[in-house]
Design brief:
This protein is about 35% helix and about 20% strand. The protein has about 350 residues and is α+β, with helices and mostly antiparallel strands. The protein has one domain: 3-Layer(aba) Sandwich (Beta-lactamase), CATH 3.40.710.10. A hairpin with a 2-residue loop joins strand 1 (about 50-55) and strand 2. Helix 1 packs antiparallel against helix 9, helix 2 (about 90-100) runs antiparallel to helix 8 and helix 4 (about 155-160) packs antiparallel against helix 5. The longest helix has about 35 residues, at about 5-40. It starts with a helix and ends with a helix. InterPro entries: AmpC-like (IPR050491), Beta-lactam-related (IPR001466), Beta-lactam/transpept-like (IPR012338). One of its GO terms (molecular function) is hydrolase activity. It comes from Pedobacter petrophilus.
Amino acid sequence: MIKKDHIRTLLILSLIICSSFNNLFAQNLETKIDSAIKTVFNDPTGPGVVFMVAKKGKIIYQKAFGKANLELDANLHTDNVFELGSMTKQFTAVAVLMLEEQGKLNVNDPVSKYIPDYPSGDKITIHHLLTHTSGIKDFTKMKSLSDISQKDMTPKMMVDYFKNEPLDFAPGEKFEYDNSGYVLLGYIIELVSGETYEDFITGHIFKKVGMDQSLYASDRKVIRKRAYGYHKKSYGYVNKTVISFSVPFSSGSLMSTMGDMLKWQNALNHNVLLNGAETKKAFSKYQLNDGKEFTYGYGWHIKDINGTPTREHGGSIFGFKTMGVYIPEEDIYVLGLSNCDCNSPTKVTGDIAALTLKMFSK
């Protein structure tokens, strides 16, 4: 008969072995992630990047590399605030779905229901805007963009800026990434909700989720723990070009931190903001007019890593580049935020996601 002391000893030994294995696993993962990052982000004296890996809603890796402010020689930290660029589109899409869940709009509604004078507005739906299949010309490709880039524009002024451009293709005919469609969505959010886009996102998403360090971007406000953005020239780094964030508006004007973005991801996973049916719409693939499927939902690219489904989106705005990859099957979230538009975290984020998936799938 096995004595209780022997059982206790065996349990302690098993716990020690398990703990040692977990520590070795974590150290191995950290070493591999560090190596992947340093192949690209290897200038400790220049602007840099922060990376995070979370598993089942908990952070298992987070580090900062490089400087948050070159003039002050201030190091980046994992709680610095970054401009998100087009990762803003996730929030815009969810805001639209929240309004649909409240019965205030329908994604199949034509744009003309909300903006009666919009050209071809009876043929373009909210769904087309969400999926980049509207055919509306992307305002970032218009030659006159520099004329308004530093002006304070109302949402209506922004819509009027591009609305009379000819469509690039018939609505639903093909997928072509389009910032104008998401500006239009922000305007519709304002018309339907009776709130500004900034107030809607702040009040109904940031505050509800507890994203205390997230906000609508500004180059004028004093923002605590801001990471400063940079360009790289042949002669060295320079401060990013100043713009009016009323121009990218709901297509790219939000700021956040790694910790807040994890709160965002966890809120999506637990249907804090949307019910299951509306959430599914965001992460579904859709078809073009000819029945061909394309890999974009509402605010996310729907892709895969070696056959394992992922939800991905990046961002690029003066001085910043960002990338996030979520793997639903393993509940793995990988995020990279860079404060120089000279170095994109896109490939490294994908590489980290792939190696993390591989290690947890063994």
